[in-house]
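User: Some background: our group keeps a shared notebook of sequences we're curious about, and every so often someone picks one and asks for a predicted structure to add to the entry. Today it's my turn. The entry only has the sequence so far, pasted here. Could you supply the structure so I can complete it?
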Amino acid sequence: MPELHLLTGAYALDALEDVERAGFERHLRSCGNCAAEVIEFQEVAARLSGRMQLAPPERLRFQVLSAANRTRQVCPPGWTPLRRPSLRRVLATACAAALIAGSAGLAGVAWRGHQAARDAVFAADRAGHRATQVADVMTDPQRSEVVQLIPSGGTATLVAARGTAVLVTRDLPALPSTKTYQVWLFDTKGVNSVELLKLRAGGGQSLVTGVQAGSSVAVSVEPAGGSRQPTTSPVLNLLVA
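Assistant: Of course. Here's the predicted structure to add to the notebook entry:
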């Protein structure tokens, strides 16, 4: 695959093969610069598609009305002419339809790509903000750390600083597709869902805000899609120091 940073224009015009498009869209999720450049290309493409819809010249209206005045509008009684359209008329009609469809199609492609690029920018911004929060917690000199061995397998580490905690899990057992791990915050206000824990090779990471000394972060096994409240006993429960 060519250098991904060079594919912004081709992606904006929907000119990539399926494999290239899939790889470039994965790249967009983590590259804000390319996502912004795609948006710019899509806006230009949308403006160009609008310019294709030109108003007909005034003389064309005069010519059409003049021809209508010279053309018989009602056939003689009992006679129905079966005239095959001329090749010129067929081609003209086909070209007009192609121009209209092409203009609408290009605008549609531009709009869909524009929205996808904007979504990628927002996703990259969120990911960047989350990464900054995680780094702030992990490097805080006053951070607290708690480690727990999980009876069902794996380990969990909770690092907390200034009201935010990072939960890191290792070697958690895989679950069937009908189940998921869900992260909870237990504090004086009750039990609140944080997020579903996404695992990669048994490892996962969760960012928990609003923690304080005495609250705890837990993980339970829930139905796919998560639950409003825990439905099973937590597989791990770490107290914030």
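Suggested note for the entry: The chain has a mean pLDDT of 75. Residues 9 and 99 are 22 Å apart (CA to CA).
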